[in-house]
Design goal:
Elements (H helix, E strand, L loop, with lengths): L5 H21 L3 H7 L4 H29 L1 H25 L2 H13 L3 H12 L5 H26 L6 H20 L18 H9 L2 H31 L4 H27 L4 H21 L3 H28 L6 H34 L11 H22 L6
Length: 408
């Protein structure tokens, strides 16, 4: 087993972090820009879903390609493509082109090979005892990227609609140059292979869901991720319609939520785990998240929304890692990669369904249920739907306590 190589891991962390910063600059502004460019609710849903859909379809192909030609060239291709996608976003912003916005997000999703290939890179360069720490670096890069990215968006958007896209393109372009110069190859030629995979994706999913110990947890993780995806993609439209905030204020809401969730996942969850089982934490977290979703929907004043967001962040920060932690504990050592890979596939699928469901409900409530000029609740319908999904996860978590469970 290789020992952890701190230099390459530090460079990989920086590569993933900077890439996530660029992604998070664009995310809060997409629904706001698209709505101004004439997009309806379903178009908004597809615009936000297309990235995850492309990742779902292409990430396994990039992973297989990295097994054949090495990790470094695939990461470099991904960064180059991502840079181009942000250039397209900048052009779309200044030209008010909905078609170019779709092209930007489609290309960004196709080129979104960084995360699965980065995980393979870590597996190549760490020993078994260091691997959990290495994988944790990706989670840390996610958290930090989703704090700094919206903060930069808030600073750039007052300069003009084009500048967030330019900023993201510059950041990703610099990241590409840094990786070209400093990121070494992790997979030696003798370890590469050209053989076909032993099982297709569908066969792998079916085999995984056939295991009673993990089936319920994968379903719970999927439902909870759909709920989170509804929140994170419809939030800009919700805030714009209910409070009428400016773009940079919307971006700061993501910063606020990111800091809260980083605190819960980086500090609080470890201490809670010492006192309670993961099954208990899933139940508690999903209950808090359900309350948070309802409070977000009902908060008619900005201070109410901020307070509700704190409740929501605590619930999400407790539930998500606890579901994955229990899933890992209930999986044999020889099956870890397959089961966790299936859970991530379901996560990608959930992030396709989430925005489509959220904006579909938003459009239905506005056009079919009531007059948006007289009803203050139309924009809250997606959050109520997310609360129902979180409640379903809570029901599943409570069932875990009534079952004869494998030791944790």
């Amino acid at each position: 087993m290789p020992r952890a190589r701190r230099g390459p891991l530090a460079i990989l962390f920086l590569t993933v972090f900077i890439d996530l910063v660029g992604f998070a600059i664009v995310l809060p502004l997409l629904p706001l820009y698209a709505e101004r460019f004439g997009a309806g609710e379903m178009a908004l849903g597809w615009l936000l879903a297309i990235f995850s859909l492309m990742q779902f379809l292409f990430a396994p192909l990039w992973g297989q390609l990295s097994d054949r030609i090495g990790r470094r060239p695939v990461i470099l291709i991904s960064l180059a493509g991502s840079t181009l996608s942000y250039v397209l976003f900048a052009v779309a912003s200044t030209g008010h082109s909905l078609a170019l916005l779709f092209a930007s997000r489609t290309l960004g999703g196709i080129m979104g090979a960084n995360i699965p290939v980065a995980q393979a890179y870590i597996a190549d360069t760490t020993s078994a005892e260091d691997r959990a720490h290495g994988m944790g670096l990706i989670g840390a890069a996610f958290g930090l990227g989703f704090i700094l990215g919206p903060a930069l968006a808030s600073a750039l958007v007052p300069l003009g609609e084009i500048w967030p896209g330019i900023g993201a393109a510059v950041i990703c372009g610099v990241n590409l140059l840094l990786a070209i110069r400093s990121l070494p190859e992790a997979l030696p030629p003798e370890n590469r292979h050209t053989g076909a995979a032993t099982a297709g994706r569908l066969q792998t999913v079916v085999r995984s869901l056939a295991l009673p110990a993990v089936r319920g947890l994968i379903v719970m993780f999927f439902l909870f991720t759909v709920a989170i995806a509804i929140w994170e993609t419809t939030l800009p439209a919700f805030i714009d319609r209910r409070f009428g905030w400016l773009d940079h204020q919307v971006a700061l809401i993501y910063v606020y939520a990111g800091v809260l969730m980083a605190f819960v996942q980086g500090f609080l969850i470890r201490r809670l785990r010492r006192r309670a089982s993961e099954a208990t934490l899933i139940a508690a977290g999903s209950a808090i998240a359900t309350l948070g979703f309802v409070a977000l929907a009902l908060g008619i004043e900005p201070w109410m929304h901020l307070a509700a967001l704190a409740i929501f962040a605590v619930g999400v920060g407790i539930s998500s890692p606890s579901i994955l932690g229990l899933l890992s504990r209930r999986t044999a050592v020889t099956e870890q990669g397959r089961i966790l890979g299936v859970s991530q596939s379901f996560s990608s699928l959930a992030r396709v369904i989430g925005p489509l469901l959220g904006y579909g409900l938003l459009g239905f409530s506005v056009t079919r249920v009531s007059d948006p000029a007289t009803s203050p609740w139309d924009e809250a319908v997606p959050f109520f739907a997310a609360a129902v999904l979180a409640l379903a996860v809570l029901s599943g978590a409570l069932m875990l306590h009534s079952q004869r469970r494998p030791p944790e």
